[in-house]
Amino acid sequence: MGYLMGVTALWAFSFSLIGVYLAGQVDSYFAVLLRVTLAMLVFLPFLRPSLLRGKQRLALMGLGAIQLGVMYTFFYQSFLLLSVPEVLLFTIFTPIYIALLDDLLFGRFTPIYLVTALLAVLGAGVIRYDGVDSGFWMGFLVVQGANLCFAIGQVGYRRLAADLPPTLAWHNVFGWFFVGAMLVALPAYLLFGNSAALPTTSLQWGVLAWLGLVASGVGYFAWNQGATKVDAGTLAIMNNALVPAGLIVNLVIWNRDADIPRLLLGALIIAASLWLNHWWCQRRQVAVS
């Protein structure tokens, strides 16, 4: 849980940094490529290929390609089709995908996870719903593609970790995750990137460096590690904890308008979903013992 809370605080800054300094100014494919490249460089010095078998390496690369490479491609394109509030609104469905996919991959059905995930979606919706206009369906589908990729990556990582030794030094193998993401990001930039829209200021380069080295490099490693240490319900809920965290950062630093009562109400609903999930897990442990 500590990993997820720490990365939530870290990523809360990322949304505003992208929206204020990069969106509409720097080519999105280049931004994705640079973030993935820098993140990969963080972990390549620690890479120990012998720690994973061939299929395991391919699985980890595949997860990186989906969770980071394809997800970012969808996510950045969504800003060309939707307003920022609409994009944020439509990201709140990720917990539902996580709850359903985790049960599917682990061969079970846990209704309480779906209930708490839906509660987290409700809380995030209370915070972010600003209404939508007509003609938004394509944008909606693009965002759902990003949500689904992010969910598949998290749940797939949990499933892969369950089949590997608990003593595995993940920092010695996580570089494969970013290698997989690079296999998507590089061709996407070469095919669709705009070389005339590269960063032009030191601030933009600095933001990209922070997003690549810290938000992507450290952030995805810590988040996926946290995903293996909590139950699926908690993971699903924490995906929407970013909504109030991101709004608080945006309000405090960039002084953007926010509806404080709605922010508090939505945060309370998300907290209630976490409490309900924790209560159910404790009750199940008592019943089993």
From TrEMBL:
It comes from the Bacteria. Its main location: membrane. Residues 3-127, 138-276 form the EamA domain. It is found in: Cell membrane. InterPro entries: CO/AA/NH_transpt, EamA_dom, EmrE-like. Pfam families: EamA. GO terms for cellular component: plasma membrane. Keywords: Cell membrane, Membrane, Repeat, Transmembrane, Transmembrane helix, Transport. The chain crosses the membrane at residues 7-23, 29-46, 58-75, 81-100, 112-129, 135-157, 169-191, 203-223, 235-254, 260-280. SUPFAM superfamilies: Multidrug resistance efflux transporter EmrE (SSF103481). It is a multi-pass membrane protein. PANTHER family: ACYL-MALONYL CONDENSING ENZYME-RELATED, BIOTIN TRANSPORTER. This is DMT family transporter.
